[in-house]
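Check this.
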Amino acid sequence: MAGKLYFVATPICNLEDITLRAIRILSEVDLVAAEDTRNSGLLLKHLNIKKPLISYFEHNKKLREEKLLQELISGKDIALICDAGTPGLSDPGADIVKSAIEQNIEVIAIPGASALLTAFTVSGLNSGSFCFEGFLPRERGNRRKALQALAQEQRVMVFYEAPHRLLAVLEDMAAIWEPSRQIAVCRELTKMFEEKRRGTIEEMIAHFNENAPRGEFTLVVAGQTEEDKPIDWHSIEMELEAMLGAGVSRKEASKQLAEKYHIKSKDIYALGLK
C-alpha cells in the first residue's frame, strides 16, 4: 500500500505558530522533504523531532521527485515542508502534487501559517476577494508585461518580494498602474520587528528610498477602481457624434456622457470642436 504525502505548514518566523497536528504528523512520518534542510533541521530540533531529512528545492526537484515518489510507492509516509509557511505556494511543491496524484498517492494538507493570508487580513484592503500572484518576474521587461496584464484587475492582489527588488517593483507598479494606488507593504511578518506600512505606491517609494528595505516582504495592492480606469476619449467622441447625428444637442449629449463616464461635461463638449 502506498504511503501518504503530507503538505505540512510550518511557522513563517515565529516558532509558536505551528499546529499540534503539524507536530504530530512530523513526528509520525518516515521522511521529511525540505526546501532548506538546515533551516528545517533547526525547526525539528526545536520540536524535539528526529527524522531523516532530504532536500527538495527548485534546482533539484526533478531528480528528487523520482526518489520521493519511489519512497511513497514503497509505503513510506513523507512530510513536505518549505522554508516558511505553507508549501505549494511559490515553491516547487506544486510539481510533486501533480505527480503524486497521477500515481494515485494520497496528498493531505496540514494547514497553518501563511504570509499570504496573514498580510491580506491585516492590510486594510480586504474587500472580500483577492488574487495571489506570488513573485513577479525578476527581469524588468517581463515584470512590466506581467503588471500590464494585471492593469485592469479589480480584485486585491498579493505579491511576495525580496528586499533587493522591492524598490524596482514599486517603481514599475507606479509606472504601469497609478502612483496613487493603495498598497500595504508588510515586512518580517510574525517576527519581533514586524512592520506594516499602508498608503499609496508613491508614498512607499519615498519611504524605501530613505529607508533601505530589509527582510522578506508581502505586498497587498488594491485592484483597479472605476476612477483608475484610463479614459477612452476616442470611443467617447464616437458616441458623442452618434448622439449628435441622432438630433441630441451637444449640451445634452455632453451632460449624459459626463454622467455615464464620471468626467466633466465641458471636456466632452469640446470634443470634435476646432
